[in-house]
Amino acid sequence: MRPALPGAAICRTFVVVIDEGDEIVTVLGKFADEHDIGAASLSGIGALSRVNLGFWRPATKDYLITEICEQVELLSFSGNIAWLSTERRIHAHVVVGKADGTAQGGHLIEGSVYPTAEIVITELPAKMRRILDEKTGLSLLHTE
Questions:
Q1: Is the peptide bond before 115 cis (omega within 30 degrees of 0)?
Q2: What is the rounded distance in angstroms from the CA atom of residue 50 to the CA atom of residue 117?
Q3: Rounded CA gap, 99 and 91, in Å?
Q4: Averaged over 44-73, what is the pLDDT?
Q5: Can you give the pLDDT at residue 24?
Q6: Helix or strand or coil: residue 109?
């Protein structure tokens, strides 16, 4: 177990409304850069016209990608913003709902918004950094 974040006050909260046709991870990354957000928690809802989900495979140390090319509801969007070397990284997991009532989820690789997505960014006072873990091949979260 890694140490928890200190119990300091939350810095800033933003609501980012993402427009039709925009790629959700790209928009959030640009927003974080423009507002100098180094550590944050993400949550949201919306809808997507296409999404790529990843499922981590420990044996091969890569993601199995599932592409969904149909209109889906973004039922749950949860993630964070942290530093990886000298870049901010968006790390999010999502659950999407299909017209037939089924749901699929996983690591968000990319997603095209249609018609909108509403993401809440809650800045955190601690510094969060991702460090490559040789055993898993993943960049795991560490707090400072």
A1: yes
A2: 13
A3: 26
A4: 97
A5: 98
A6: strand
